[in-house]
Predict the 3D structure of the following.
Amino acid sequence: MKVMVHALLMCCCIVVFASAAFAENDYSTIGVDDPAKVARFINDLQNAINAGDREALANMMSYPLMVVIGDDDVEIKGKEEFIEQYDAIMSPDLKDNIAGQGLKDEDIFVNRRGIKIGGGDTWAMGEDGNVRIFILR
């Protein structure tokens, strides 16, 4: 009986701590005032990638933008350069990583560095009331 009570208490503690771990992310530290903006941004990002909409994607970036082209870190200075280098920047692996990003709060990792998108090295932050990508790898 004592073992069952102890096991039950352990399960309750796990549930409480797991729930706390999945509490709503605080995006205010990275300049995002409305948490719903993050899921909308990721959804719009995924839709733009699926549609091959280079212009829409270029507008979702913060410049200068750090990207990887081949094995090199490259700084993209503006929208026009992003569009010109689109095929080199947006590799199939990168597109797949971003497409696999969940939209639920518990699927989104955020810390003081920003919002990690797609399980890779793509990071976004708040900028002028919007979410923008500042590292795309």
